[in-house]
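Ticket #4471: structure output looks truncated?

Reporter: J.K.
Steps to reproduce: submitted the chain below (672 residues) through the standard prediction queue, then opened the result file.
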Amino acid sequence: MNLLEVSGLSVGLPTADGLVRAVDGLSFSVAAGELFGVVGESGSGKSVTMSTLVGLLPGAQASGSALFEGEDLLTLPPARMRALRGRRIGMIFQDPLSSLHPHFTVGWQIAEMVRAHEDVTRKQAMARAVDMLGRVGVPDPARRAAEHPHQFSGGMRQRAMIAMALALNPALIIADEPTTALDTTVQAQILELFGSIQQEYGTSIIMITHDLEVLADIADRVMVMYAGRRMEAGTREEIFTRPRHPYTRGLLDSSPARHPGAGRLRPIDGRPPSLVSPPAGCVFHPRCPVSTDACATDRPPVRTGPAGSTAWTCWLDALPAPPAAPPAAARTAAAKAGGRTLIRAKGIVKNFDGPRGPFRRGTAPVRALDGVDLELREGETFGLVGESGCGKSTLARCLAGLHPLTGGHLTINGTDVSSGDPRAWNTVRRDVQMVFQDPYGSLNPRRRIGSVIAEPFRIHQALEGSELRRRVQELMETVGLDPEHYNRFPAEFSGGQRQRIGIARALALRPRIIICDEPVSALDVSVQAQILNLLSDLQDAFGLTYVFIAHDLSVVRHISDRVGVMYLGRLVEVGDSEQIATRPAHPYTRALLSAMPSGGDPARSGRRIALRGDPPSPSAPPPGCVFHPRCAHADAECSASRPALLPGPDTSGHLAACFHRLHHGDTPATAR
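Returned output as attached by the reporter:
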């Protein structure tokens, strides 16, 4: 029995440029008790669809029907819609911090939602809030209910949003990108929680995401959207093992998880069309590698598979075999030979002052980096992974000279910059550049991109006049931007194009080292693939050396030669990317790998290794091994002594800071 039945839904959004046809003739259904995944690139209409269904887009021009428990959501009066929201339909938004009011405690906000729909006392509502926080896995719920949102970690805030959505036991929960901003381990916990909610409450869940991989282990059915239309819908097994639409296969092929080696990814060429004037025929045909003449003129039919388990909108009855992936370009000779050392860090320490205020005097400093040793060789890509707050970005900024060191020694290209002396940094400043996580936030919105890319030349007085413009346009062409867009502003570019602008700026002075701080985490999977291919091409063309920071191990494994795993300001494991991915020696690395989505691959599926609690505070790190409070293998030695980062008996290049190194084939119960 279907809980929600949407038929012919179209949504128009009036803008200054014309009517945006955000959703165009969309039909789908959600059965009682199922998890229904909705996937597609940014702008595909996923969030607009769900916001329209629950009346959160009052200015939208909606048509069609959306039957929920026998009522058409599109024609409900506002009072009835308000009664349904929360009680029968719950919402979980992407950013829990912006969804929770910073002034009120978490428990008060959940209780207030209960009192808005039920005639209960404040005490009864608060008891319900505490109970729900406990049910979704928030430790010590009575105490945490009295805390404010900023006192919760990202994962705990998302659990609080789930508790709020569940408080009235709704029949349907709509989760809009609930794991996008979370670490891999926290993402795995939230996805596991959704499965528990289905089993315990029989709740239907619509989960919106731009990454198919996160649906691989939990979705019952999946719908793929593009430019406001349904491209394909089917069971999880059909979508992941036998995709019928070229767009679905393009999304899967763009994922680094499906290309663990160093070969090139197969991104979807081009970018989504304007929805003010969408292309005729199939909206995907301008980017489709197998389009025909009919695709450009006529709207394709809906085809169905055996027993109706899958449906796709395409002129092709079956997809041709995909072309072989282009071989990876050969690494530079320096990288193959090991290369000379460009960065040598020894015992790096970075402390930040603790919170200040009338009641916080004498608080302990935050120890963001706690004795990091690192060597970076010419021509290689060194990946850094770990949970949020582990010190990855702080290390990057120390290596780039944006943070002065508290202690330790740092040498870059033979120059000692440990003291932070500006004269020492001036000798290496051109050699080290950064690409930041948020491409829009790192670009001045009031300056044209030609001026943004030219800034390094002006600072170092390298070029001027017509030669400067020529060089900037040459850089734009190198990173795949149109040189004619020299005078455009950052807001006129897509997210992927803005990241290319940041890369062009970093390349301006021909540096030896580029530090990439989460450069693809905010991008769609297809754009992410384009940027990863671009970084590989630039490395081969210019002999670049990368420090690549990410929390997604599949991305790091794909692009990196060596990988360092960080936890609470320390490197706990370092090794070749394949060693780390297939033969992890540290329990923390094993837990990170187990939290990765399987992508529908049985070889990558298995029992997740649950980590106990949240990472400790860096202002009061635990004694001994910093990971021991969350480690299933910890004993008295781990809590008393700090393990050194040492090689194991099998290989000299694989280092781990653990008294009980894991070996290939060990299980959590036997690794000792």
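Triage note (M.O.): checked the attachment and the full token line is present. The chain is about 30% helix and 20% strand.
Status: closed, working as intended.
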